[in-house]
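Section 5.1 Outputs to date
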Amino acid sequence: MKRSTLGLAVSAMTGLAFALSATVAATPAMASGDYGPDTCLQGYVWRTARPSDLVCVQPSVRDQTAKDNQVKASRWTSGPFGPHTCVTGFVWREAFTGDDVCVTPAVRAQAKLDNSKAADRKVSARLWISRYTVPPRDNGDGTSTSTSVDDIPRFKLSGDHYNVGQVKLYIRFDTGRLYWSGAVTATAHSGFAGGSFGKNTGVFDCAAAGKPANGYAQAYDVVSGRWSPRVPVRIGCSVL
């Protein structure tokens, strides 16, 4: 009897562990890992109005979506729009084309709003390069000094669609050898999605006619583990 009871207990624990494992695997992380191009910014999760619905929303919206899915049959009736006509007080959610789950008008409005902001809530890790020169140095006596070195453009790395927090920056040769690295804190700026930044690197732009890129710049979002695409550069030239 004891052995039988123990066996049942072990089986129950195994089943529970399996259920918990399945739940964890099915739950998208809130920017706690790299889930590819659909990785949500920190604080957002996939809506999953259907398995392929990877629009990033507030956790409360995902919870509401799951509840509406569970009771959808009770809100359908036969009517002018067929067997999935909504009962009085409800409308189709329309989170995606063909979504006829019946919800309140406020929930449908929320789905429309979330769809419009879908791209801005993902860790797209955009990176682009601009160029700057060091301004003349003020000597403090009404004069300033500039040298030929200061007339050579340097790289500035900028980006948006990152999590708010640390972003690591790298400039490497095509072989992978590191040429320069730095870090910056991405913060919220008007006109830019997610966390954004701009970083003067001090690295000279060695681009010249007939000389192709021999390296690349890349950024790493520390919160999610997402890498930006590589941006080609030419580096390593002699500067006199």
